Amino acid sequence: MTGEPASRPSEAAGLRALWRARPAHYSRALWVLMLGLDILPWPWGEDILARLFMAVGAVRASRRRRATAWARAHPGYRPWRLAAALSAFRGRWVARSWLLGLRCPDDLRRHLVVRGEEHLTAMPGAAILLGFHLGPPNADLALRILGHRLTWLGGQRISRGWWREAWRPFLDSSQHLAPSWGEERFWSGLVYRARRILLDGGNVFLMADGAGRGVFRVSLPARAALIKPGWLVLHRHTGARVLPVLTHLEGRTQVITIHPPLPMSGSDPAGEGGAWRDTLTSLLKSYVRQFPEQCPALVFSFRSRPDVGEEQERPERRASALTGEDARTL
Predict the structure, then answer these.
(1) How do residues 128-185 score in pLDDT, each as one tens digit?
(2) Using CA of residue 275, residue 278, residue 284, residue 289, what is the dihedral sign?
(3) CA angle 132, 173, 204 (to 5 degrees)
(4) Residue ranges per domain, the chain?
(5) Sign of the CA dihedral 226, 228, 232, 234?
(6) Which pairs count as long-range contacts for 194-199, CB under 8 Å and 24+ apart, including other chains?
(7) Long-range contacts from 31-40, C-beta under 8 angstroms, 24+ separation
């Protein structure tokens, strides 16, 4: 009899705290909408958000132009249909980054598939898993749900879903290295901890196209992807293998593909620049050809972080700064 009245003030306090924690790159309108949609069982909220983003993409001229330009760069697709699918996927991306409607890891586990797992497990020793802002978010989370031990090095994750008791273990500092919003000056300490994990034989997952200075560009239809140096810094200091990881949706199932390690010969990874650039270029171009509708990060701008493909100058001491998967405002 007393449980329900007692829980209501606690829930209200939690919502107030969540509202105060709203990252700047989420609009107030989107934040309120997400809080409301999160009440619905998965995947209802995700489907609603996908349709809403598709509608907004058709109505807003700037988004319609970008999506249409991207679609026209891919022969074999009807431009209007690909543009609509791209905008819808953007909404699905935001929903999944929020864990919208997902009450516990088991809700997601049933819709996860890993390919190329042997590349990670066949050889002992540390590994850097290199993600990209392509396809659905949270590839590191998917791998952890399926039992792989690794640490996320990237952006902070804040949502009603992430704050649920069932998901909080994945935010534990032992496997989640992320600065609070506006506290990026602590990146150097987090990168040092990631280095220590790798030297101890652990695995670290980070994004290749996060914040920092670009080391090379990958030319893609309509836009280039700028590859950042953070993972190279960690590799240089640890000698850890570097395994590219790409992910895409097949229906409601998220497929995570772990590719073979980048070639290593000699002790200086800078000497591998050409071979690594060619390998990553081949992987990303192949992905874009297969899943052009799942590449909104190459089309729409981020609000609070550097865009994929937009070089940002940083002081030398922050050359190893890394960022996580960024949400976009409605």
Answers:
(1) 999 999 999 999 999 999 999 999 999 889 999 999 999 999 999 889 999 875 556 6
(2) negative
(3) 35
(4) 3-97, 105-318
(5) negative
(6) 194/151, 194/153, 194/234, 195/234, 195/237, 195/238, 197/126, 197/151, 198/126, 198/128, 198/234, 198/238, 198/240, 199/126, 199/238
(7) 33/330, 34/94, 34/95, 34/98, 34/100, 34/159, 34/160, 35/160, 37/95, 37/100, 37/101, 38/98, 38/100, 38/101, 38/159, 38/160, 38/161, 40/101
* Predicted TM-score (pTM) of this structure: 0.86
Render pLDDT for 22-47 as a digit per residue (tens, 0 to 9). 888 788 999 999 999 999 999 999 99
Contacts of 67 (CB under 8 A, 6+ apart): 57, 82, 83, 84, 86, 87, 299
For the residues of 218-284, what is the DSSP string, one character each?
EEETTEEEEEPSHHHHHHHHH--EEEEEEEEEETTEEEEEEPPPPP--SS-GGGGHHHHHHHHHHHH
The answer to whether the beta carbons of residues 241 and 126 sit under 8 Å apart is yes
CA distances (Å), 89 to each of 136, 137, 248, in order? 8, 11, 11
Distance CA 145, CA 226 (A): 29
